[in-house]
Amino acid sequence: MTDPSDTRDTPPRPFSPLWTYLTGVVATGLAALLTAEIRLGLGDLADLARTSLFWVLIVLVVLGELRPIVVSSSRLAGGTATSTLFTFALLLYHGLSVAVLIHALALVVSGLVHRRAWHRVLFNVSQVTLATTGAAVVLAAFGHHPHPAAPWVPEGTDIAAVALAAVAYFVVRGLLVCGAVALHERRSLPRVIRTSIGHQSLVYAALLGLAPLVVVVMSRSPALTPLFVAPLAALYFTASLSVRRDHQAMHDGLTSLPNRKLLIVRTEEALAEAREDVRVGLLLLDLDRFKEVNDTLGHPVGDRLLQIVAHRLTHSVRPGDVVARLGGDEFAVLLPTVRDATAAREVAARLRVALTEPVRLEGMTFDLDASIGIALYPDHAPDFELLLQRSDVAMYFAKEGRTGVEVYLAEKDRNSPERLNLLGDLRRAIGRGELELHYQPKVGLASGMVEGVEALLRWWHPERGPILPDDFIPLAEQSYLMRQITQYVIDTAMEQAAHWWHAGIQVPVSVNVSARDLLDATLPDLIGAGLDRLGLPPRAIQLEVTERILMTDQAYTADSVHALVELGIPLALDDFGTGYSSLVRLQRLPVCEVKIDGSFVQRLGKTVDDERIVRSIVDLVRSLGLRSVAEGVESDEVAQRLQDMGCDAAQGWRFAEPMPAGEMTDWLGERVGAPSYGRCGTRGVTAL
């Protein structure tokens, strides 16, 4: 039942608050231990060593340290060593020096057996020494000074002295330990005290209350002293059975991490203690492609992989953070205190770095990766259930966008009330004619000819005014409305293209399509029927698809893509440079145009790296026999740089902003010139 998230053996950072606290306690405790041992003469110690009782007590104290009584599965509560009973009895009978000497020996032995860090062993020795010293001071106040040469056996009239000494021992030891736990876990001291003192006070009361009886037996019949092991063993096994059941109910059986039940408890505790200047963070983590491991190598290998993941996660978070397994390959990380979303992202990045180190199992090497969603209290949710839901939403955004880490954003959440209202408004907007197309020209940089126009969807909301495409297109893509919008855009763009072509303005109209549109088997039929109805050649319409979509295996093999190619519809690769394209696949794709993403173009002349990227893309596209178009061109300087690089065409505010169909018709009408066919089989009109 070891807790994989227990990091108490991790050395504290030098000069941190925890390091300073431990150093102070250890220094004080070791000084008290040294002072107490100086008072114990070698002769007294030699006399004690000749008695069998002395060695029996050493064995009992050591065994008590090795097997503490644990009455709660909470890491804050910890366990209570049964050695406390015999140490306190030694204090009453033989005095402070003998008690702290034997208990310090037992703590060192226990530390070696359990492989505890030395800073933890030294702290335990020091806090026990200080607690025992505090009890000895109380006894001295009542005039009792036990010594090996003059043992003290309490009488009935000494109950008050013994009780107050026990209270002093419990209070000093409890406060010292709670202080260390509070600093290590980064929790408030009152909370740690409430969590741990209640569980341990009853056990301490039983152990310290039995100590005077042990003293009486030691003084009259030393051979009977080991009999106290029997009730202690019964108490130990009863408590262990209860804690084991509690642990099984609150922890995952495979990884021993907290499960959902315990995560709820820990989160509610963190929310109850949250301060105004900090946040509570919940991270939801899902392994990428883990199902492939189970399907290929079987569940036993998958289980071992999950155990490795659990180990890496627990050793990558801060002390006090909680790593839980929710089921399958899904984990959650609770940050009881976090400064802001940036700090939460740093934790998430650290987790991903820990997971990306290759794992070798069954003679194979696995490269792990994960998608992480982040939600914060009170920014995103007021309780656990909403935190979990919204971190789940953010996680799926990270998985879909392949970004690795995402923080929850209400405007992206299709389940939020605001987005649901916007979705309803969008559905009504389609029927009310609130959607319209604007058009932006693509101009040849060398010839100055208009080589095409791109259709851009616009929505004017009757109450909210203009709504940006980035605010409603992703929403539509996640709903049933995308097909209706696509059909509206294609029909409208084709009708406008027919109007221009039949008027002698023969420029192709580009339409952006989503992944769902591209893979829809009805798309070629829709376009083909429109071309026949309007008397348009296939080159009059061009489809623009983002690099992230078109470069996937599914799009590469889709029947709809091949049908579009057979129909003669030109395809353009949009936002090139933002994805992870294979050059071999790019060469084989049925595209005739590659559009360079505006984020690189707009930084031309500002950074050397972006200029190199754009130049490399232009050279690559030219070497493949394709046409390059730069997006987001806003100045003469950028246009000239692109022309010098050999870029074929550009679009942006430098040439014209997106215009409604009427204005675009007038703009094109003023620039009609001799037609010239481009590399995609398009004809142009003079632009400048």
TrEMBL record:
SMART domains: EAL (SM00052), GGDEF (SM00267). Pfam families: EAL, GGDEF, MASE9. Keywords: Membrane, Transmembrane, Transmembrane helix. The chain crosses the membrane at residues 18-36, 48-66, 86-109, 121-142, 162-182, 202-218. InterPro entries: Biofilm_reg_signaling (IPR052155), EAL_dom (IPR001633), EAL_sf (IPR035919), GGDEF_dom (IPR000160), MASE9 (IPR048430), Nucleotide_cyclase (IPR029787), Rev_trsase/Diguanyl_cyclase (IPR043128). Residues 419-672 form the EAL domain. Residues 278-410 form the GGDEF domain. The keyword Transmembrane helix applies. The keyword Transmembrane applies. PROSITE patterns: EAL (PS50883), GGDEF (PS50887). This is Bifunctional diguanylate cyclase/phosphodiesterase. It comes from Sphaerisporangium rhizosphaerae.
